[in-house]
Structures are given as structure tokens and as C-alpha cells.
Design brief:
CFA46 protein; CFAP46
Length: 154
């Protein structure tokens, strides 16, 4: 919340979304957010694709969404239990589609212009630092997506 507030005036007064851990967005909310945004940020637990329905995502068309930032792959005991219970009902192929590279490909095929995603499990603190670096470079310094990612890699 602090970072979104900090960079709000540099980018837009219209930050929209779901913040907090009180409820999970419905599939309709995910669709609304992805189809009506120019940039989409997911900062959450486990795999982004574990939160959305695959059949729903592949049928979407999101050409207005020029940038998707997925700061996911954070694990807690509670999130691990949730994902484990959910994965029991999925095929190996379906679970494979939830990996970072496959997720980026699916989002690209639905029309997202660029996808920035974590590739391995991390901590909330590390993702917070990544988000701060990305927002600072994209919004404060006006760097391109590629330049901002390159800075993250250093």
C-alpha cells in the first residue's frame, strides 16, 4: 500500500485493484482488472496461475494491458497447504502451465505487451524490494521495461 501511494502521483490517480488478504478476487474481478488496465501488478503468495482459471485466462483478450508484473512465488505454511490441496485435483500438465515461463507465454498469447515475473520461490521482503526498484525506475526515472529489469538483474 505504501509503494502504491508513494508512486500514485507519478503515474496515475487511478490505481485500481484488490489490496489485502481478507478475500480472494473472483474470476470476474480478475477479468475486469486485466481487461481494463494498461499495467497489471500481482503481488501475492504462491503461483499467480493458481489464483485464476486456466480456461478463463486463455479465452481472454487483453491488448490494452501493456505490462504485467508478477511478484508471486512467495510461500507460507498456509499458502503451501492451500496450493497442495488445490494441486491434488490438477493434472501434471495443468500444474506445468502454472510455472513462470509458461505463465508468461500464456499472458503474452492473450495480448499482454510485456511480462515481468519472478522465476523461483522468494520472500515477501525480496519481492517488496523488487517492486520498489521496478516502480522507482519505471515511474520516477522513466526507464523502459527492459532497462528496469536489467537493473533488477544486477
Amino acid at each position: 500500500k505504501e509503494m502504491l501511494e508513494k508512486y500514485r502521483d507519478l503515474f496515475t490517480l487511478r490505481w485500481e485493484g484488490v489490496i489485502g488478504d481478507t478475500c480472494a478476487p473472483s474470476q470476474a474481478q480478475w477479468e475486469e482488472l486485466l481487461t481494463n488496465c494498461s499495467a497489471f501488478l500481482f503481488y501475492g503468495m504462491e503461483r499467480f496461475m493458481s489464483h485464476v482459471l486456466l480456461n478463463w485466462l486463455v479465452a481472454m483478450n487483453i491488448p490494452k494491458c501493456r505490462l504485467v508484473i508478477l511478484l508471486d512465488l512467495v510461500r507460507s505454511q498456509q499458502s503451501y497447504q492451500r496450493i497442495r490441496n488445490s494441486d491434488i485435483h490438477k493434472s501434471c500438465r495443468r500444474i506445468a502451465l502454472e510455472r513462470p515461463t509458461e505463465t508468461a507465454m500464456l499472458l503474452s498469447l492473450t495480448g499482454a505487451g510485456s511480462v515481468i515475473a519472478t522465476q523461483w520461490y522468494t520472500t515477501l521482503q525480496e519481492n517488496a524490494e523488487r517492486l520498489e526498484t521496478l516502480l522507482e525506475n519505471l515511474l520516477s526515472f522513466g526507464k523502459t521495461t527492459g532497462q528496469a529489469v536489467h537493473i533488477l538483474q544486477k
